[in-house]
Amino acid sequence: MPPSVERMRVLVTGAAGFIGSHVVEQLLLAGHEVRQVDCMLAAAHGPLAPLPDGVELGDVRSAESMDSALEDIDVVCHQAAMVGLGVDVQDLPDYVSCNDLGTAVLLAAMTRAGVGRLVLASSMVVYGEGRYDCPEHGLVRPSPRAVEDLDAGRFEPRCAFCGSDLVPGQVTEEAPTDPRNGYAASKLAQEHLASSWARATGGSATALRYHNVYGPRMPRDTPYAGVASLFRSALERGEAPRVFEDGQQRRDFVHVDDVATANLLAVEKELPGFRALNVGSGSVHLLGDLARQLSEARGGPAPVVTGEFRLGDVRHVTASSDLAASELGYRAQVTLAEGVTGFATAPLRGAPSR
Hints:
The chain is an alpha/beta fold and 354 residues long. 34% of the residues lie in helices and 19% in strands. The strands form five sheets. The chain has a seven-stranded parallel β-sheet with strand order 3-2-1-4-5-9-14, sandwiched between helices.
């Protein structure tokens, strides 16, 4: 650890999870003292997953559990969450319970314990659709895509004023938020809770809006995982990855090592009040290209572009990480080509069932 960086005692929630476990590793390598808690949510770990070494069983929705976990802690790195688009609206209570109630209970416990610093795992899903420009009307916010358009294979959002095709661009943190599914709404609520807590207590909260995170230890065979995990799980079963719509959706795929680095930087540098920062790779790729590269790297069957769609999905969303670079010194190091090569054969975590 550089001599200018103070050794801190960090509580990591969701420490047994995909991203949380990588965050723990980087914090420990940097010389920080880490307390790890996880409730071993079945949707992420499976119903019979063992508690990993060094991880304490703890649920952020339990005040008693958080009061115990926060003793002598300097900063909380809050990774615990129920993730992914989900199956249907019946998942809404679980998203609100795990993500929003859990964050509220944690923040209240932090106040009781006198812990005034939070690093929050947020997501680019809070933006909904990304930035779009109309050749005639300039910057516009697209309306939700119509079912009849999606049924007909017209996937691109259109200008609400003239109906023209829109040109996608990169979102900055000043863009308005517009969550378009239950998971996205719960992540934005987490940010609002953290912001109100910071104002009320004088604490600091840095929300890291992750892009599409991929890499080793993603969960296997679960609808709550990211799209990279779904593609990778199919290939492990010997099946072709199924790509929704036409595969031309624009995304920023960021390696989990880079996301863990962003968390380390946010732990080591306190930003005043509430701040939201995009965390991506800085490169734009198509969803179909990710599936193809994974198939080629693993030597599996070519992807199948299905034309199917989900109403909660957005068409294009990529964002600039320039603010994280200027505020934290964050810059992604793992290219998609490098990351996919390793991810194609890396072990996935056990098979959740639901």
